[in-house]
Write a structure and sequence with these properties.
alpha/beta; Arc Repressor Mutant, subunit A; 10 helices; 2 domains; Rossmann fold
Length: 210
């Protein structure tokens, strides 16, 4: 039996995934979540073999969910199921413990294969994703100082969604002082002077939906 958690903020996507996954013999969707916080809580409650996570989850994005999930449930494999395929996101997903990456546009072609691979603890990255990682490695970016870490991207998302430093700290399980330090570092790194500018950055870089 392969036990799966599905987290996506769109009900239709969750239902579609459930139908596809449970059509496979011996596969069961044991939990669904509509935001990142719910995904973490339900993962802890159900201990799935595999978590299929959207990146753009409300409250806590897919990478931060992965970070927290991997620290508490190291045997649970994570498949990022997203519409985004930029190099920075792919790199950061690897750093936090994502072991599989499938674009929603390629679900029909790769989803089942990805689950089968993760079920035996083998990573799964389609060839175009592997190529993106290779190209990124070969570039050896010269402007890496302006690139946000996965934790900083999580902070930006929450601030752009209107959360206070106290709420950011609670959701990411860090101190308020650390949350405020992250905010100051981000503003300096991106050369931004206001929260409005930070929101525009988040929308432009698809950290939140417009």
């Amino acid at each position: 039996m392969i036990r799966i958690l599905v987290a996506d903020d769109h009900y239709i996507v969750r239902e579609g995934l459930r139908a596809i996954l449970e059509a496979q013999p011996g596969w069961q969707v044991v939990a669904e979540a509509a935001d990142g916080k719910e995904a973490i809580l339900k993962a802890i409650a159900t201990t799935p073999d595999i978590a299929v996570l959207d990146y753009s989850l409300p409250l806590i994005n897919g990478l931060e969910v992965t970070r927290q999930m991997r620290s508490r449930l190291p045997k649970t494999e994570v498949l990022l199921f997203t519409m985004h395929d930029n190099e920075t996101l792919i790199e950061n997903s690897l750093k936090v413990g994502v072991r599989g990456y499938v674009l929603k546009t390629n679900a029909r072609r790769y989803l089942i294969e990805a689950i089968e691979s993760l079920a035996i603890h083998k990573p799964f990255f389609p060839s175009h994703i592997s190529q993106a990682l290779l190209c990124s490695f070969l570039k050896r970016r010269t402007h890496s100082g302006s690139t946000l870490t996965s934790r900083q991207r999580s902070v930006v998302q929450l601030i752009a969604e209107g959360h206070s430093s106290k709420e950011v700290a609670r959701l990411l399980e860090i101190s308020v002082k650390t949350a405020e330090t992250h905010r100051a570092t981000i503003m300096h790194k991106l050369n931004l002077s206001s929260s409005t500018a930070l929101v525009r950055y988040a929308v432009r870089n698809k950290l939140v939906e417009a």
